[in-house]
Amino acid sequence: MNRYLPLFLFLPAPMLGFAQSYEKNGLPCITELCVGDGLEELSKIKWDRAKSALSLMGKPDYVGSRPMGASDITTVKQIYRGDVSKAVPYLSHEAFDAKAIPLLASITAACGRKELQGTFTTESGNPTAVKIALLTDKNDAAIQRWTVTSIARRFPAAVSAAQQADIRKQLDERYGRFSVSRGRQTGVDAAYAIHDADPLMGGKFGFSLFSNQRPDDYERYLQHPACGGKQKVSVD
Fold first, then answer.
1. Element at 113 (helix H, strand E)
2. I want to staple 116 with a disulfide (CB 3.0 to 4.6 A). Which of 32, 96, 141, 199 is the partner?
3. Is pLDDT of 119 > 80?
């Protein structure tokens, strides 16, 4: 045997190539992002400018384009802790974009679950909505991190039943083990669902990936030191 044969001939098959993975740390992913990702991964995406839910067709109300009222600021501070001053418009409108991401790093805690939504469109023209929230660490309620909680994507070009069937087949191959049709499974912390022209998806065919909430989420938020749920309460 030639002892000078190239090394790659002896490498295990999986090392010879790399296939796109649609799962990370047991959670589902799209090409750009995964459920469970944090601010670092979010900062790599070209986000649409955040708009308020009150935006009218053809006249967007961009977040941060007008002053916030005192009641809005008070409401935000009831939930969030840390340096909220610059991030108030985003926290109040429950939206984010590229400008918001570095501001969110200064928010140290939430005393309840609130989600912010950001949007972007893929090169193929597929609108995508991502929601994030401060989630408590599984092992320490005093630690919270901004985390991707859901990803939803629409396919405007999929107008025929044949196109939709083909997309459904591809998605089932990628995310089948997370399917909501299987019910909540032990050890599976996320779910996948197809939306057939769902109004919540803009009336277009699409799908969503989302993390499962823990039954004790509400209590764990209150247990953060900044939220008062661990302080001894006097009966007198």
1. none
2. 96
3. yes
Q: Are 212 and 189 in contact (CB under 8 A)?
A: yes
CB 173 within 8 A of CB 192: no
Q: Is residue 164 part of a domain?
A: yes
Whether 234 is covered by a domain: the verdict is: no
Q: Check residue 9 and give its pLDDT.
A: 38
168 vs 13, higher pLDDT: 168
Name residues whose C-beta falls within 8 Å of residue 131's C-beta, 6 or more positions apart in sequence. Answer: 115, 116, 117, 118, 148, 149, 150, 151
Residue pointed to by tokens 């247990």 = 223
Element (H, E) at 91: helix 88-93
Question: What residue numbers bound the domain in which 78 lies?
Answer: 11-227
- What phi and psi, each to the nearest 5 degrees, are found at residue 184? -75, 120
Structural domain tally of the chain?
A: 1
Q: What's the whole-number mean pLDDT along residues 129-149?
A: 94
Host H or E run for residue 8 = none
Residue 136 lies in a domain: yes
Q: What's the pTM?
A: 0.85
Coil, helix or strand at residue 160: coil
1 domain-assigned = no
Of the candidates 54, 70, 72, the one whose C-alpha atom is nearest the C-alpha of residue 62 is 54
Beta-ladder partners of 117:
95, 131
Tell whether the torsion through CA atoms of 131, 137, 142 and 145 is positive or negative. negative
Largest CA distance in the chain: 87
